[in-house]
Amino acid sequence: MKPEERGLNVPRFLAVERGRRVLQGLTAPASSPSESPAGGTDRSPRFIFAGDASPVLRVPWASPTLHAVIVFALAFLIRLLFLREMAPHPLLDINLVRGTDMEHYIQWGRRIAEGDWLGRGEGAFYQAPGFPYFLGLMFSVFGPTVLPVMVAHTVLGSLSAVLVYWIGRGLFTPAVGLVAGLMAGAYSLLVFFGVILHSTTLEVFLTCLALLTLVQASRRGGGWWLWAGGTMALAALVRPNFLVVPPFVIAAILLRGRGQPARSLVKAAGLFLAGFVLVIAPVTVRNLVIGKAFVIVSGSGPETFRIANSYDSPPLNFRYPTLPQMPLTSWAFWRHQIVKGILFWWGFEVPQNVNYYLFRTMSRVLQWPLVAYWVIVPLAAVGLVAARNRWREMLPVLLFGLGYYLSVVAFHIVGRFRLPLVPLLLPLAAYALALAWRLARDRQWVRMVPGVMGALTLMLLTRPWGFPLIYPVDHANYGYILANRGDLADAVRELDFAVSGLPEHPNLNYDMGRMLLLLNRPAEALTRFEREMQISPRNPEVFRRAGLVAARRVGDPARAVRYLEQYLVLAPDEPRAEEVRGELAAIRARGGTDR
Fold it and tell me: If pLDDT is split at 50, 70 and 90, which confidence band does 589 have?
């Protein structure tokens, strides 16, 4: 019976039927895939947007190569503009500040470039060696300067965006892949780390490579599982958190392949594990032979775990604890993990070594409306729920993400540590956007409301609001950078910001005093030295400098004598003690007071 014969409103009936087909298309695979003997599928089941041939979701210029070129061009242009903007800026000297991870990696890379490829005499690797060896290769080819590495970062970041496009295309559709790739190209923190000589850009690139091979292994099986294990091992050589992930992927292979012959599942898991071990093994052997210790990749894990999970460890970032580590069986430990697990999804990009927000105040490019973490996390959550009928097919990449998430939560929550998860979040976020677009096109407003309201609510919860995003230590670091460049007035201003937030921090007032002396402001310098005396009363050098300033620049012999005598109490046998005794004698000879 035709609709009109049943007394139905024909246009409304057709609209409902069209909407029903939309939802069916969004939740049903295009075909029933045949299983691969290695635990994958010979043909990937697709998440079909209803009527892929419709003009609304058909991606123009459907060539995958052209899509990849568009994504690369956008990502490269943004990164190149940012590099051009920041290359002459003093803040970029943060890469060379002593004590930062960047400076340590650069020095390590230069030693490698000079011929110490095995790191003889260094013991087992304490930090992951992947990025220093990448730097060593770059320095060997281009010399010890850092600009070529930044250019390489620009290229790697752009290629990462292209890989995200292919990941999204493999998980969903070309439209989703294109949106995900463009979002990766314009992702704010990925742009930022293009000029920071940290391992982050290389980590993300290798993570994208591992995810893409994992997607291909899930679809095609066979030797792709070997490649998936090998690329994940490469990522682990740069970010050792990935050492935790293989058991999750193997579990996904076994769970996803229920009903298949056990032999094919064991083969797939074995190939994956073999690829992982083959790539990791040379580093482990090197640590055993040269470092005389069985260390799989790097030895910092136990100490980092202690720092992250002691009774006075903060849930965000880290500080060196004074209290003991929480027992694994204690409620305090698990409560700490729950708090970190929740804060992992907060949009604040917790800084370590460098502060994205400080750079943002000085960069026009970073002030553009780039894609942020607090935007993609809610969208990815909506996309994950919408894709629930495909979770089994996506299980390897989903458990990959779960394993990495748990590995970060067990240690520190820092903005850059979360970035390797972003290549998985972006396709899910892009899927949510494509779904919303299709439902809006078909005027399925009621069906859009839960997803839209859920995403907006999560954005309000995850966006960082109303608190200082720039720490006093960031001002201190920038102040020292400016001082090393000879810009003492601005350096004093930045250190003053730091002191206001860290009034009891040692050496800040002392260093400000030294800079003020060079600026010919001795009275202010003496005030700073006197503040430092209250913070560090056992530091003899503060008393020596304060005494000399009081005697020679301020004209206060009484204070000069008091401070110089205190120096002799604290350091009577230091090389400069004779100079101080001579200064005291000169003051008294000029009629200065004994006290």
Answer: confident
Tell me the mean pLDDT in the region 116-129.
Answer: 89
Q: Are 170 and 47 in contact (CB under 8 A)?
A: no
Q: What does the DSSP assignment read for 479-499?
A: HHHHHHTT-HHHHHHHHHHHH
Query: In one letter, which amino acid is 158?
Result: S
d(CA 576, CA 412): 44
User: CA 110, CA 138: separation in Å to the nearest integer?
Assistant: 9
Neighbouring CB atoms inside 10 A of 422's CB total: 24
73 C-beta neighbours (distance < 10 Å), count:
13
- Angstrom CA distances, 328 to 171, 309, 335, 337, stand at 37, 9, 11, 10
Task: Say how far apart CA 316 and CA 349 lie, in whole Å.
Answer: 10
pLDDT at 313: 94
Q: Which tokens in the block code for residue 440?
A: 């809006």
Sign of CA dihedral 22, 24, 26, 28: negative
According to DSSP, residue 89 is labeled: -
Helices (H), 241-261: 246-256
Contacts of 18 (CB under 8 A, 6+ apart): 442
E runs forming strands in 341-461 = none
C-alpha 440/C-alpha 404 separation (Å) is 35
Angle (nearest 5°) at CA 356 between 469 and 107: 130
> What stretches of 339-387 adopt beta strand conformation (E)?
none
Three-state secondary-structure class, residue 459: helix
